[in-house]
Automatic annotation (TrEMBL):
Domain 3-hydroxyisobutyrate dehydrogenase-like NAD-binding: 165-291
Catalytic activity: 3-hydroxy-2-methylpropanoate + NAD(+) = 2-methyl-3-oxopropanoate + NADH + H(+)
SUPFAM superfamilies (alphabetical): 6-phosphogluconate dehydrogenase C-terminal domain-like (SSF48179), NAD(P)-binding Rossmann-fold domains (SSF51735)
Name assigned to this protein: 3-hydroxyisobutyrate dehydrogenase
Oxidoreductase in keyword set: yes
GO molecular function: 3-hydroxyisobutyrate dehydrogenase activity; NAD binding; NADP binding
Originating organism: Massilia cavernae
Root EC class: oxidoreductase
């Protein structure tokens, strides 16, 4: 069985790595958090002392890190992946980062002889746990063909968006829309409840009407409306507001680069910026609802 090095065992990476173990892959893991590594080691993964150690004998390297700087450092830093992984290793970065950084890292990998894919995901922590993620891939066909089996162990849809960086552009378009939808859904629910409506009844009606959307139906931001949503567990776990703010910033940079108008995305970014300044960056992104609620609630 192929040997996979998995770097970044957070809300997404940990359940993805568990699914690879379940599928029978040999796994070496590395994360800055000892607790995150303990959980994977207990499940059968090899606990590497450094990222370099994790990748030294890998056939496939998968990274699931927060942002640009982490990915750039992991692959391009001195003594890091491009210097330590065997040349036959396929490199797959699943983090959501800027397309130009994905391209920079992929170009550097190619210059050394590595095949690399940007493969950001959609589906959230629930999709990661269930192994039903959607992978949105940028890179060449041959590399994607090599990646299909391992991606299939963590997800159920694999889309080829285009060349290196195209996965990230596609992902950022999706997440800009998600940020807009979540803020709009929270705003609508707050308006209805301020008029005395029951948030569950209001949600059920809108879910069968023209306002229906993913945030409303599958990730409802009002606590108690949906048992399984982060809103019903104090906005813990899930997709952090700080990460959504990061993605909306990536969308704005991408818009600037292409001279594209994205006023709704910009407004959503401002709302998440205010939310972050209120000290809520670590709460799930559906907690943007709190920005609309009266302080007494
Ligand atoms: P997270 O903050 O929960 O996890 C990140 C992990 O990376 C942490 O465990 C951290 O310790 C580790 N880490 C940071 N720097 C490191 C380094 N230098 N070496 C090793 N480990 C390091 O983040 P997450 O929610 O798992 O998200 C990861 C990526 O996936 C982000 O780019 C995010 O935008 C994207 N994403 C998240 C979701 C979601 O629902 N959470 C959904 C889709 C995409």
């Amino acid at each position: 069985m192929q040997h996979i090095a998995f770097i970044g065992l957070g809300n997404m990476g940990a359940p993805m790595a568990h699914n690879l173990l379940r599928a029978g892959y040999r796994l070496s893991v590395y994360d800055l958090s000892a607790a995150a590594m303990d959980a994977l080691a207990t499940a059968g993964a090899h606990r590497a002392a450094t990222a370099a150690d994790a990748v030294r004998e890998a056939d496939i390297v998968i990274s699931m890190l927060p942002a640009n700087e982490h990915v750039r450092d992991l692959y391009l830093g001195a003594g890091r992946v491009l210097e330590c992984a065997p040349l036959h290793a396929l490199l797959i970065d699943c983090s959501t980062i800027a397309a130009d950084v994905a391209k920079e890292v992929s170009d550097a990998a190619a210059a050394r002889g590595f095949a690399m894919l940007d493969a950001p995901v959609s589906g959230g922590t629930a999709g990661a746990a269930a192994g039903t993620l959607t992978f949105i891939v940028g890179g060449d066909d041959a590399a994607l063909d090599r990646a299909r089996a391992v991606l299939g162990a963590m997800g159920k849809n694999i889309f080829h968006a285009g060349a290196a960086g195209a996965g990230q552009v596609t992902k950022i378009c999706n997440n800009m829309l998600l940020g807009v939808l979540m803020a709009g859904t929270a705003e609508a629910l707050n308006l209805g409840v301020a008029h005395g409506l029951d948030p569950k009844v209001l949600s059920d009606i809108m879910a069968k009407s023209s306002g229906r959307n993913w945030a409303l139906e599958l990730y409802n931001p009002w606590p108690g409306v949906m048992e399984t949503a982060p809103a019903s567990r104090g906005y813990s776990g899930g997709f952090g507001s700080a990460l959504m703010l990061k993605d909306l910033g990536l969308a704005e940079q991408a818009a600037l680069g292409a001279h594209a108008a994205t006023p709704m995305g910009s407004l959503a970014r401002q709302l998440y910026q205010l939310h972050q300044q209120g000290g809520h960056g670590q709460l799930d992104f559906s907690s943007i609802l709190q920005l609309f609620q009266a302080p007494s609630r």
